[in-house]
Write a structure and sequence with these properties.
Number of helices: 6
Shape: globular
Helix content: 25-40%
Strand content: 25-35%
Distance between the termini: 32 Å
Number of strands: 14
Order of helices and strands: EEEEEHEEEEHEEHHEEEHH
């Protein structure tokens, strides 16, 4: 089923499939990067954890009638997806202040955002994925005003579903990044991954950070943290 390598990114390798040109195989890597690739390391087992967590999250979103590129997990490190043309925008939804927004705007960490804040970043590694506004997005990509409105509505709906999902696992969703892509017929669907690499998650009881910040800030074991998230999803959410 797996064909030739199409593309390799920081976190995944993307392969053609031999039996369907509209489907791809994503193979999750053990590499960890932060600060747009400036900090790098490798953790045995990380690819497995991100693949399984993402698969469970996408399966949950399908149950909530959110359309994504995900089809199924093929094994511990690979998943089958519908091929999409990624729109070069990173859509960040923030429920509480953490990370870059605290430095950019001087907002104290843990400040709540009601309603949530949506930020757009231009997906361009050589520019360090700069923050942009809607007009920039129209200029830099082929997205229309109506499509961007749809993406923001989807992001907010996904936020509510993810807050419920992670709350059931004893986790608070602080913020997260989404990417969207176009199917061959032009339909825009959620793509890429949703994992502790792309979400900030804090333990509801202790406030402990349980995401890639443990790697960014050198405050814990990335593998132990991701294993705990997968275990909580399996025990408290996905088993129901």
């Amino acid at each position: 089923m797996k064909g030739s390598l199409l593309y390799e990114g920081k976190a995944k390798r993307v392969y053609h499939t031999t039996d369907n040109s509209d489907r791809l195989i994503l193979a999750y890597k053990d590499d960890a990067t932060a600060f747009n690739g400036k900090k790098k390391d490798e953790f045995t087992g990380k690819g497995r954890l991100n693949n399984l967590i993402t698969s469970k999250v996408f399966e949950y979103l399908h149950q909530q009638n959110i359309t994504t590129h995900f089809i199924e997990a093929l094994n511990d490190k690979e998943q089958l997806v519908n091929q999409t043309t990624i729109i070069p925008l990173e859509v960040v939804v923030r429920n509480k202040a953490a990370g870059s927004i605290t430095r950019r705007l001087g907002i104290q960490e843990k400040t709540s955002f009601i309603p949530p804040i949506i930020e757009l970043f231009y997906k361009k590694d050589e520019l360090d994925d700069p923050l942009i506004n809607d007009i920039h997005a129209y200029y830099l990509t082929d997205i229309t005003e109506q499509e961007l409105t749809f993406i923001k509505q989807q992001a907010l709906a996904i936020n509510e579903h993810l807050k419920n999902l992670f709350r059931s696992a004893g986790l608070e969703l602080i913020d997260f990044k989404l990417e969207f892509g176009r199917l061959p017929d032009g339909t825009i669907v959620l793509s890429d991954e949703i994992s502790p690499d792309t979400c900030r998650l804090w333990d509801i009881e202790t406030g402990k950070k349980m995401d890639k910040d443990v790697f960014r800030e050198d405050i814990g074991s990335l593998i132990d943290t991701y294993e705990m998230i997968l275990q909580r999803l399996e025990e408290n959410v996905c088993a129901k």
